[in-house]
């Protein structure tokens, strides 16, 4: 059932709340160490330790003599030993959690570096493509250039038509008659219709 991708995984909860599922045996110890170290850094832990110490001190101070288990006269030796034991275990757990976090940070930094290299390569590729497009667009005729060329061709055609009209009339002067009128007159005169 855990191999199916369409079903959610069951939540793995530890002593101090939710923790990730361990994939290897070393990861299980590290994940538990992180969960405990994370719990040590919460306000809830401080409240629990404060309540525990207040209860311990109150019980061993105000309770009847035969029910006390840690003497005030000896300076609450058992409480001191328990707190020292807790501190001696919490320090290595916190260091282990920090080492795992350092490893994760190192992997994240490597992934960021690779992602940055890919982004730089993509950006350089796009810059080269943009430059090649600019070079290619320099050879492409613009709208204004095409309009200018068409105007020049139109003027050349008008000049040729004027020259043909002058040649047909033979006088070399333009009398203001349009080309179709002249052609119609010349066709009538020759009998073509």
SSE topology:
Blueprint: E1 13-14, E2 17-18, H1 25-40, H2 43-62, H3 77-138, H4 143-169, H5 179-190
Antiparallel strand pairs: 1-2
Helix pairs in contact: 1-3
Strand content: under 5%
- Give the integer mean of the pLDDT values: 81
Distance between the termini: 96 Å
Elements, N to C (H/E): EEHHHHH
Description:
Helices cover 71% and strands 2% of the residues. The protein has five helices and two strands; from the N terminus they run E-E-H-H-H-H-H. Strands 1-2 form a two-stranded antiparallel sheet. Helix 1 (25-40) crosses helix 3. The longest helix has 62 residues, at 77-138. The protein is rod-shaped, with a radius of gyration of 48 Å.
In short:
This protein is mainly alpha-helical and 193 residues long. The protein is 71% helix and 2% strand.
What are the salient characteristics of this protein?
single chain, 193 residues, mainly alpha, 2 domains
């Amino acid at each position: 059932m855990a191999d199916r991708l369409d079903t959610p995984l069951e939540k793995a909860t530890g002593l101090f709340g939710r923790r990730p599922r361990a994939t290897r045996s070393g990861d299980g110890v590290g994940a538990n160490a992180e969960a405990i170290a994370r719990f040590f850094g919460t306000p809830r832990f401080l409240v629990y330790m404060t309540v525990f110490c207040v209860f311990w001190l109150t019980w061993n101070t105000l309770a009847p003599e035969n029910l006390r288990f840690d003497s005030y006269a000896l300076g609450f030796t058992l409480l001191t030993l328990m707190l020292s034991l807790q501190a001696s275990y919490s320090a290595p757990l916190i260091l282990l959690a920090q080492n795992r976090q350092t490893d994760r940070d190192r992997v994240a930094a490597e992934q960021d570096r690779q992602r940055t290299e890919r982004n730089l390569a993509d950006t350089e590729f796009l810059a080269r493509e943009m430059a090649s497009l600019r070079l290619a667009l320099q050879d492409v005729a613009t709208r204004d250039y095409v309009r200018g060329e068409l105007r020049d061709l139109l003027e050349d055609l008008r000049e040729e038509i004027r020259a043909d009209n002058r040649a047909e009339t033979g006088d070399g002067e333009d009398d203001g008659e349009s080309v179709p009128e002249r052609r119609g007159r010349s066709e009538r005169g020759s009998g073509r219709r």
